[in-house]
Amino acid sequence: MFIKNVIIIALCSLLFNNKTIAFAPNDSLKQAIVDITMRDYYVREPVKRSFFSFRNKSIFFRLNPINYLGAGLLFIYQRIFSEQIQANCMYEISCSEYTKCSIDKNGIIKGSLLGIDQLSNCFPNVIYDYPRHLINENYKIINAIELDE
Question: Which pLDDT does position 113 carry in this prediction?
Protein backbone atom coordinates (compact mmCIF):
# COMPACT_ATOMS: atom_id res chain seq x y z
CA MET A 1 0.00 0.00 0.00
CA PHE A 2 2.86 2.34 0.88
CA ILE A 3 4.60 1.70 -2.48
CA LYS A 4 1.36 2.43 -4.33
CA ASN A 5 1.05 5.82 -2.57
CA VAL A 6 4.68 6.68 -3.34
CA ILE A 7 4.19 5.84 -7.02
CA ILE A 8 1.03 7.98 -7.20
CA ILE A 9 2.80 10.93 -5.53
CA ALA A 10 5.81 10.55 -7.84
CA LEU A 11 3.59 10.48 -10.93
CA CYS A 12 1.62 13.52 -9.76
CA SER A 13 4.78 15.51 -9.05
CA LEU A 14 6.26 14.48 -12.40
CA LEU A 15 3.05 15.49 -14.17
CA PHE A 16 2.94 18.83 -12.32
CA ASN A 17 6.58 19.60 -13.14
CA ASN A 18 6.08 18.79 -16.83
CA LYS A 19 3.14 21.19 -17.03
CA THR A 20 5.13 24.03 -15.52
CA ILE A 21 8.03 23.32 -17.85
CA ALA A 22 5.77 23.05 -20.88
CA PHE A 23 4.20 26.44 -20.28
CA ALA A 24 7.34 28.32 -19.30
CA PRO A 25 7.18 31.75 -20.97
CA ASN A 26 10.93 31.95 -21.71
CA ASP A 27 11.14 28.73 -23.68
CA SER A 28 11.43 30.02 -27.25
CA LEU A 29 11.89 26.58 -28.83
CA LYS A 30 8.56 25.33 -27.56
CA GLN A 31 6.88 28.59 -28.61
CA ALA A 32 8.37 28.23 -32.09
CA ILE A 33 7.06 24.66 -32.32
CA VAL A 34 3.59 25.81 -31.26
CA ASP A 35 3.70 28.68 -33.77
CA ILE A 36 4.72 26.39 -36.62
CA THR A 37 2.16 23.75 -35.68
CA MET A 38 -0.73 26.15 -35.22
CA ARG A 39 -0.01 28.69 -37.99
CA ASP A 40 -2.77 27.30 -40.19
CA TYR A 41 -5.28 27.96 -37.41
CA TYR A 42 -4.39 31.57 -36.67
CA VAL A 43 -6.72 34.24 -37.99
CA ARG A 44 -5.02 35.96 -40.89
CA GLU A 45 -5.19 39.68 -41.46
CA PRO A 46 -7.27 40.53 -44.52
CA VAL A 47 -5.17 41.52 -47.51
CA LYS A 48 -5.74 45.03 -48.83
CA ARG A 49 -6.81 44.74 -52.45
CA SER A 50 -7.09 47.58 -54.89
CA PHE A 51 -9.21 48.01 -57.98
CA PHE A 52 -7.68 48.22 -61.45
CA SER A 53 -6.07 51.50 -62.40
CA PHE A 54 -7.14 52.60 -65.86
CA ARG A 55 -5.28 55.92 -65.71
CA ASN A 56 -2.43 55.56 -68.20
CA LYS A 57 -4.43 53.53 -70.70
CA SER A 58 -5.75 54.42 -74.11
CA ILE A 59 -9.27 55.74 -74.68
CA PHE A 60 -10.28 52.41 -76.26
CA PHE A 61 -9.09 50.52 -73.21
CA ARG A 62 -10.94 52.85 -70.82
CA LEU A 63 -14.21 52.68 -72.78
CA ASN A 64 -14.21 48.91 -73.26
CA PRO A 65 -16.87 47.42 -70.93
CA ILE A 66 -15.20 43.98 -70.98
CA ASN A 67 -12.26 45.43 -69.06
CA TYR A 68 -14.58 46.75 -66.36
CA LEU A 69 -16.52 43.49 -66.21
CA GLY A 70 -13.33 41.43 -65.80
CA ALA A 71 -11.92 43.85 -63.25
CA GLY A 72 -15.17 43.80 -61.27
CA LEU A 73 -15.39 40.00 -61.25
CA LEU A 74 -11.78 39.69 -60.14
CA PHE A 75 -12.30 42.30 -57.43
CA ILE A 76 -15.42 40.49 -56.13
CA TYR A 77 -13.55 37.17 -56.11
CA GLN A 78 -10.64 38.68 -54.16
CA ARG A 79 -12.83 40.51 -51.65
CA ILE A 80 -15.54 37.90 -51.01
CA PHE A 81 -14.94 34.39 -52.30
CA SER A 82 -11.20 34.12 -51.67
CA GLU A 83 -11.62 35.04 -48.01
CA GLN A 84 -14.64 32.77 -47.54
CA ILE A 85 -12.92 29.66 -48.90
CA GLN A 86 -9.67 30.69 -47.18
CA ALA A 87 -7.71 30.19 -50.35
CA ASN A 88 -4.06 29.49 -49.63
CA CYS A 89 -1.98 30.15 -52.72
CA MET A 90 1.47 28.57 -53.06
CA TYR A 91 2.85 31.73 -54.66
CA GLU A 92 4.07 34.88 -52.93
CA ILE A 93 1.80 36.99 -55.13
CA SER A 94 -1.55 35.18 -55.13
CA CYS A 95 -2.93 33.85 -58.39
CA SER A 96 -5.72 36.43 -58.55
CA GLU A 97 -3.36 39.31 -57.74
CA TYR A 98 -0.89 38.04 -60.35
CA THR A 99 -3.71 37.85 -62.90
CA LYS A 100 -4.76 41.40 -62.06
CA CYS A 101 -1.21 42.73 -62.43
CA SER A 102 -0.71 40.77 -65.66
CA ILE A 103 -3.92 42.13 -67.15
CA ASP A 104 -2.89 45.64 -66.12
CA LYS A 105 0.52 45.24 -67.76
CA ASN A 106 -0.18 43.02 -70.80
CA GLY A 107 -3.85 43.50 -71.61
CA ILE A 108 -6.92 41.36 -71.09
CA ILE A 109 -6.01 38.40 -73.33
CA LYS A 110 -2.34 37.86 -72.53
CA GLY A 111 -2.82 38.78 -68.86
CA SER A 112 -5.68 36.30 -68.48
CA LEU A 113 -3.61 33.56 -70.10
CA LEU A 114 -0.67 34.26 -67.77
CA GLY A 115 -3.02 34.15 -64.78
CA ILE A 116 -4.57 30.86 -65.94
CA ASP A 117 -1.07 29.44 -66.39
CA GLN A 118 -0.14 30.27 -62.80
CA LEU A 119 -3.50 29.04 -61.49
CA SER A 120 -3.02 25.69 -63.22
CA ASN A 121 0.32 25.31 -61.38
CA CYS A 122 -1.05 26.28 -57.96
CA PHE A 123 -1.08 23.07 -55.93
CA PRO A 124 0.93 22.14 -52.82
CA ASN A 125 3.49 19.88 -54.52
CA VAL A 126 4.55 22.52 -57.06
CA ILE A 127 7.03 23.82 -54.49
CA TYR A 128 9.29 20.84 -55.27
CA ASP A 129 9.61 21.97 -58.91
CA TYR A 130 11.36 25.22 -57.97
CA PRO A 131 14.95 25.72 -56.76
CA ARG A 132 15.48 26.75 -53.15
CA HIS A 133 16.46 30.35 -53.98
CA LEU A 134 12.99 30.95 -55.48
CA ILE A 135 11.20 29.98 -52.24
CA ASN A 136 10.84 32.51 -49.42
CA GLU A 137 10.91 31.92 -45.65
CA ASN A 138 7.13 31.31 -45.56
CA TYR A 139 7.52 28.52 -48.14
CA LYS A 140 5.88 30.56 -50.88
CA ILE A 141 7.22 30.61 -54.44
CA ILE A 142 8.61 34.00 -55.40
CA ASN A 143 6.83 35.14 -58.56
CA ALA A 144 7.69 38.76 -59.09
CA ILE A 145 6.04 40.67 -61.89
CA GLU A 146 7.67 43.82 -63.19
CA LEU A 147 5.28 46.70 -63.74
CA ASP A 148 6.20 49.77 -65.73
CA GLU A 149 5.88 52.65 -63.31
Answer: 92
